[in-house]
Amino acid sequence: MKNYKALKSASKVSVKKTTVTFKEAVDAVKFKDGDSIPDGKKVGDVRIAAQDKQTAEVLQIVSKVYDSNTGEAKDDLEKNADINMINTEINSFKAQISSLQSKQADFEQLKKDLEAL
Fold first, then answer.
1. What are the pLDDT digits (tens) for 51-67?
2. d(CA 93, CA 99)
3. Which pLDDT does position 4 carry in this prediction?
4. What pTM did the predictor assign?
5. Average pLDDT for the chain
6. For residues 54 and 21, is the Cβ–Cβ distance under 8 A?
7. What distances in angstroms separate CA 117 from CA 68, 71, 96, 107, 114, one per listed residue?
8. Burial class (CB in 10 A: 0-12, 13-18, 19+), 95
9. pLDDT at 61
10. pLDDT in tens, 65-116
11. CA-CA distances (angstroms) from residue 112 to 64, 109, 115?
12. Is the pLDDT reported for residue 1 higher than 90?
């Protein structure tokens, strides 16, 4: 995230762990009078099994949002954060830094050799 450190120190961005619900719980549905009941079943038997609520913990980046015309605070923007994606980005930056340091060393050696003439 671009400028994360500066935004964090200005209290314009933060992180949090929260639980989100992907699916609400559903009560069992039983056969009742008037239903088309298959052989081997009777009124009161479970037609559709109950399902538990499905939740997961997620990491989020929370950004302050303001109306550009009035400066009035709006609802915070919450984006899910993926540690694996962030690790991939960090490793990519490290590889770029290593490559740039190698190029820098090459140019410093070339400069030194040329200045020695």
1. 999 999 999 999 999 99
2. 10
3. 93
4. 0.61
5. 94
6. yes
7. 59, 62, 32, 16, 6
8. exposed
9. 96
10. 999 999 899 999 999 999 999 999 999 999 999 999 999 999 999 999 999 9
11. 50, 5, 5
12. no
The arithmetic mean of pLDDT across residues 22-46, rounded, is: 93
Residue type, 33: D
Q: Which of 53, 51, 75, 79 is nearest to 64 (CA)?
A: 75
- Residue positions counted in the chain: 117
Residue 24: C-alpha distances to residues 18, 49, 52, 58, 86 (Å)? 17, 14, 7, 17, 30
Nearby residues of 66 by Cβ (< 8 Å), 6 or more positions away: 72, 73, 74
What is the 3-state secondary structure of the chain? CCCHHHHHHCCCEEEEEEEEEEECCECCEECCCCCCCCCCCCCCCEEECCECCEEEEEEEEEEEEECCCCCCEEEEEEEEECHHHHHHHHHHHHHHHHHHHHHHHHHHHHHHHHHCC
